[in-house]
Amino acid sequence: MAVITHQENPTLVESSVSATIHAPFEKIDLPAWCYALPEAEYQACSPAHVAAGATTSPDGRAMSINVEVIGGSLIVQHYVEEIGEPDHLRLVSRSDLFTPAGRTKIDVVWDLQVRRVDDETCEFTNTVRSSAPPEMQEFLARQGLAFDAFAAARRPNSVAHNQQETPEFAKSIERHALG
Length: 179
Prior knowledge:
Layout: E1 11-21, H1 30-36, H2 39-44, E2 49-56, E3 62-70, E4 73-85, E5 88-99, E6 102-118, E7 121-131, H3 134-142, H4 147-178
Antiparallel strand pairs: 1-7, 2-3, 3-4, 4-5, 5-6, 6-7
């Protein structure tokens, strides 16, 4: 039996994309937008988006549940709020990843930030970082897959997904702020 040595949740992909929101900074409320986001609007932000909803974690923190397909793999994200300010929302998830080779876990940090540009404009930055918890590292080792090769294969799809959804999220946040 092979000995598996774990890195401490090594990064698979980190992607950060910015877009403009045409709304006053004072009207932006990222947590309110996220937890009230209608499923149809979430789906309209990317063809990869399957479903979205809001709930609370066992310890009472706000949660966003997102389901999407990235690079042919279904991912169910159980995002728990870590930072919940009007201009900064950071959510963390130990997500379920369904690949053609089976099911495993992936850690995802979804970090949304808004900064004032002027009285009527903001810059929205959507950063997504995925990393490999021990379950994923073992999953890859059982298949004989090198971590670096797996990460390199995921990167183009993950980055393209963030580039696609970020401007649509910005439009949705804008509608929420001005609605």
